[in-house]
Amino acid sequence: MGVFIEELRIRNYKCYESADVKLQNSTLLLGANNVGKTSLLEALELCFTPYKKISEELIFLKKDEVLSREKSILLDVLISPIGDSFDDTWHEFFGDFVVEGESKDFVALRTIIKYSAAKGEYELDRKALNAWPESDDVVSFTDFNSHSVKREVIEAIPVFYLDAKRDIVSEMNDRFSYWGKLVKDIKLSDDDLKDMEILLNDINDQIIGNSDVLKHLRDKLNDISKVVNSSNNRVEINPVSRKIKDLDKGMEVRFSDSHSESFAISNQGMGTRSWTAFLTLSAYIEWKIIDMEREGRPYHPLLLLEEPEAHLHPQAQRKIYRQMQELTGQKVISTHSPIIAAQVNLDEIVHIYKKGESSSINYINLEGLGDTDVRKIKEEVIKTRGDILFADTLILCEGETEDQVLPEFFKEYYGLEPFELGTNILGVGGAGKYKPFMRVAKALDIELFIFSDGESRIVSDVKKHYKQVYGDVSDAKIADYITFLPDHGDFEKYLVQSGYKNELLKVIDEVKGKESFIEDYIERNNGQSGKPQRTEEVCPRCTQNIFKSEIKDYEGEEGFNTALIECLGSIKTEYSSQIGQLILQRDNIDKIPQVIRNFFFKIAKIKKYPINAAFGEIKDGGIYVEFDTETTRDS
After folding, report:
1. What are the structural domains, with CATH classification, of the chain?
2. Of 149, 157, 356, 631, which is the most buried if we count CB atoms within 10 A?
3. Helix (H, G, I), strand (E, B) or coil at 80
4. Per-residue pLDDT tens over the stretch 486-510
5. What is the rounded distance in angstroms from the CA atom of residue 162 to the CA atom of residue 277?
């Protein structure tokens, strides 16, 4: 029965003022660049590093804060057994540090980084805690175990850190790398060493003896005796190392496939070199475990892996994650890869984000969710739309047309691409599919906005789901974040009613390759029995929306509009990508439809996004409200 690091608490370290991180046997750190993923890995490494030079640059400071010598860094780790209590080996090893908790035993260690006036520098100290305090009491907690934390306690949880800059070629030239540590002693018996070195000497002598060039070079180099004034000096040329202990300096790794000659690893691409460095770490860990088991010492490897997907194509990313899972030890992995995120359990995801001065931690909250809800989050959000995990803002829409045109209008309105503002815009494929995205956005503190169809049933359902996820918020609050299309319609109906008929007719004709396609459509279908359609009418017996068939009437302008909306609905996949471009060709403010301008204006107010001065107003009930166009986004 082993152990695992259950929790890490960070106070005043780098970008973290205060953070509590729950860890699993395998934990995935997600977040955008520069939010603190690497800093969290480094904090964990620091907890189990015997000695390290400490700089004041590691101490968290607020903007304009002057560093006080009294300010210190606190890093607490909670070490728990697999089960309720430690097995005999670990219990004996930890000794007096074991605390008998109410539900299970634990060991708590604190790493303190503080300024030493006597040394004139920051120093690292470690203590064992006699209790695991509440989060708010961490800084004031002083109930320490009287025994000092010895080096062997720290070394029982060795850290293996593989950063994103890994390259096997560099590691092969570094004796302190995992490659260097593994090959510096290849463990041969004395007799084997003696016999092999005799053979190596013979090989060298044969190469020199059979090479006129090398013999000539050796004789010329031996003239050095004339310079140093000694007849006993002699120069040797060793084409091959004569000592087994020096073989690692000339080691070479070659790679080939079934269709080509082998090439040195230095001539391979960065993907192969990065992956080989990872496999070297794997080999080193397995070898160290054999050594530790032979010595009978308790041993819990802690693997800190930074961006394992670096330089790897999507299929290789899936493979390397599976290989990581096969490694012995507890793993904490940082990534920018939605492909890797899609392979983990939801409770293994730790989301790191930064709003304001300090980085923060959150999780996908699964409490109270059934298997179906969890599956929907996993399948509909993480596996297919995993890039939203790295977004600052999420804009959801229902239909295919909105999914295509909103990004184009967004760029025109704000003067920036959505991704430049950390925004993801995506269609969910139906009003009933918003809820899993709401859950993820709320859990990870991602600002969420919805641009929805306006049918009464959809409005009711979306509001209900929003309140279920975000709490019983007011309708005014909902209106800040959700925009429903007017007149109980969808986007196509809104465009027809709002004066964009010419653009719609043009795109239909371009898609169908002929003029007046809509007139042909009306002629073919006018007066025919329509398909059964769901209506707002409710059956008095079963209280469900009912289906009914209607005779199509395309007479007059209203009938023409109805035919146009139906026709658009039948070719959405073909026209959606073109309609936004046509509308944007207008030379006035209506190049962005009013309802979308209003929607973007509300987002700009909440997110403090910059906007094009031409759109710096919102029409609401006939009243124009001026908007401060100098507002810029908080950095």
Report:
1. 3-158+299-353 (3.40.50.300), 178-273 (no CATH), 364-492+594-626 (3.40.50), 499-591 (no CATH)
2. 157
3. strand
4. 988 888 889 988 988 888 888 888 7
5. 9
> What does the longest C-alpha to C-alpha distance in the chain come to?
116
How far are the Cα atoms of 384, 389, 405, 462, 536 from residue 433, in angstroms, in the given order?
13, 17, 20, 9, 20
| Residue pair 323/367 in contact by the 8 Å Cβ criterion | no
Do the beta carbons of residue 288 and residue 182 sit within 8 Å? no
Q: Which residues contact 169 (CB under 8 A, 6 or more apart)?
A: 265, 266, 273
Question: Of 352, 328, 333, which Cα lies nearest the Cα of 344?
Answer: 333
CA angle 279, 326, 257 (to 5 degrees): 40
Contact 164, 306 (CB under 8 A): yes
Cα separations (Å) of 47 from 25, 38, 130, 474?
Answer: 17, 14, 18, 46
Helix (H) or strand (E) holding 600: helix 594-607
DSSP secondary structure, 379-436, as one string: IIIIHHHGGGGG-SEEEEESSHHHHHHHHHHHHHHHSS-GGGGTEEEEE-SSGGG-HH
* pLDDT over 90 at 289, yes or no: no
- Confidence band of 531 (pLDDT split at 50, 70, 90): low
Q: CA-to-CA distance for 230 and 224, rounded, in angstroms?
A: 9
257-266 exposure pattern, b = at least 16 Cβ within 10 A, e = fewer: eeeeeeeebe
Six token digits for residue 417: 């691409």
pLDDT in tens, 359-400: 999 999 888 889 999 999 998 899 888 889 899 999 999 888
Look at residue 227 and tell me whether its pLDDT is greater than 70.
no
Of 621, 458, 425, 466, nearest to 536 (Cα)? 458
Q: Determine the average pLDDT of the residues in 339-368.
A: 90
